[in-house]
Amino acid sequence: MRWLQRLRTRYLLRHHPIDHTEWDQVLSRGAIFKGLSAVERAHLRELTTLFLYRKTLVGAHDLTVSHQMAVTIAAQACLLVLKLGLRWYDGWSQVIIYPGAFRVAHDRINDVGIISKQARSLSGESWLRGPVILSWDDVAHEIDAGSTGHSVVIHEFAHKLDMRNGRANGMPPLHADMVRSDWTAAFAGAFKHLQQRLAHHHRPAINSYAATDPAEFFAVVSELFFTDPETLMAEYPRVYAQLTQFYQQAPLDRH
Ligand SMILES: [Zn+2]
Fold first, then answer.
1. In the chain, what are the helix, strand and coil shares in percent, each to the nearest 5?
2. Does residue 134 lie in a domain region?
3. What percent of the chain lies above the pLDDT cut of 90?
4. How many CA atoms lie within 13 A of 241 on its CB side?
5. Centre of ligand 1 from the C-alpha of residue 157, in Å
6. From the CA of 94, how far away is ligand 1's center (Å)?
7. Distance from the alpha carbon of residue 125 to the mean position of ligand 1, in angstroms
8. How far is the CA of 209 from the centre of ligand 1 (A)?
9. What total of structural domains would you count in the chain?
10. Which end of the chain is more exposed for a tag (fewer CB within 10 A), N or C?
11. Average pLDDT over residues 142-166
């Protein structure tokens, strides 16, 4: 059946690609897309087209998701897997978009096994084998703000990559040519360093939310990698180097 899927993919790309004008508008809106080569832009357009066919993007709370909003989200999601392929997003199908920050109440199990309901306000969330949930307010604000180090889209889709090998633990499946101990040394060292800075009340150069746990650390440094690689390189060059191997991209060369 693979040939059938290949045929279908070719048909979609030829007959239903994202309109060039709309594509150029989305790419020029976000600093995150700056410096991509013509070949990379064309490949990203193909991935984004297929992403929009394979995933359902739905609005919550009466939000109407325009095609341009969908492309803005999908293009950022696809930037993460530009060199990895869409298969990394297999196994789930929905992106739910709220107009703004949304409140969630989750059961949390504490150290002594008591489950409590916790209500929090979020700009994004990523479920294991479930949907990605985003706040459009945050997506729109961040795409216009430029290289700030923040992107809720990159953050939540990085969790999706992390969860490819089970629960989010800060280590996605590494490629065959990567060295597991190099990854662990770079990430564990940086994570510990960040926690120590916070413990000593030093203002960290990166979002302190990264110190919550290794999964959040991976998601936050992925945001930096794509939106503010200079800061990541200055703070944690070994983490930057590992991410260039994992994502097979070097955003620093693009900026
Ligand atoms: Zn997170």
1. 55, 15, 30
2. no
3. 76
4. 14
5. 9
6. 17
7. 7
8. 9
9. 1
10. N
11. 92
Residue 62: which region, alpha, beta or left (left: phi > 0; alpha: psi -120 to 50)?
Answer: left
CA of 218 relative to ligand 1 center, distance in Å: 9
CATH of the domain at 210: 3.40.390.10
Residue 19 CA to ligand 1 centre (angstroms): 32
Does residue 189 sit within a domain? yes
CA of 250 to the centre of ligand 1 (A): 23
**102 in a structural domain:** no
Centre of ligand 1 to C-alpha 155, Å, is 6
Residue 240 domain boundaries: 169-255
**Tens digits of per-residue pLDDT, 204-233?**
889 999 999 999 999 999 999 999 999 999
Query: Measured in angstroms, how far is the CA atom of residue 82 from the centroid of ligand 1?
Result: 21
Contact of 123 with 144, CB cutoff 8 Å? no
Taking the whole predicted model, whether its pTM rises above 0.90 is answered as yes
Residue 240 Cα to ligand 1 midpoint, Å, equals: 19
Name the residue with tokens 């809720």.
152
Per-position b or e across 98-111, b if 16+ CB within 10 A of its CB: beeebeeeeeeeee
Lowest model confidence (mean pLDDT) among 107-121, 159-173, 174-188, 235-249: 107-121
Query: What distance in angstroms lies between residue 124's CA and the mean position of ligand 1's atoms?
Result: 8
Compute, in angstroms, the gap from residue 222 CA to the centroid of ligand 1.
11
Q: Compute the distance from residue 53 Cα to the ligand 1 centre, in Å.
A: 26
Asked if residue 208 lies in contact with residue 198, where contact means CB atoms within 8 angstroms, the answer is yes
Q: Which of 39, 81, 40 lies closest to 246 in space, CA to CA?
A: 81
Give a yes or no: residue 91 inside a domain. no
Distances (CA, A) of 75 to 29, 239, 240: 12, 24, 22
